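Late entry, evening session. Most of the bench is empty. Finally got around to the prediction I had been postponing all week. Sequence below, unchanged from the version circulated by S.P.
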Amino acid sequence: MADQAPSPAEVADEFFSLYHVLRRYVDRHVEAAMGDSSIPMACSKLLGILHEHGPRRFTELAALTGTGARSLTQTVDTLERDGLAQRQPDPTDRRATLVKITELGTKTFVSSVGPKQEAFGHLFGALSDDERASFSAALRLLRERAGNGRSPDRGRPRTGANPPQPVDTRRPQ
């Protein structure tokens, strides 16, 4: 008798468990290699985007990272506190703020690349070429179905038997 495929909920549990294990593993590996100058993966990801794309508005960074506003603000606060990034006014729109990588941020990011690549190589190098290709294809499909972190209903009219009704916020007379 063939093994029964796991349910979607079982796969989700396994995925999120793996995600947290991998994140801790990479953070520990980078920290061991970099000592006191190590940075968490969320900070490293944002520094990488700023390093590659230059100063960006929060809305652009949120789209590039797939991060919510609160998490992004916390990450930028951390980077700014540590001198790795700074906020600056947007010269084209005085209402907007840009986030820019600092010289120290660039040095820190560049020095983190090798240890991260080594950790990823150790983890994913254990997979065969075919396994990595299959895993990568599955991840791309999941990212596409999840809409890169956007709500699937955002911007679409709701349909169905019971569409939401407007709420009457007037006080009773």
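Two things to note before I forget:
The CA atoms of residues 115 and 121 lie 10 Å apart.
The mean pLDDT is 82.
Will write this up properly tomorrow.
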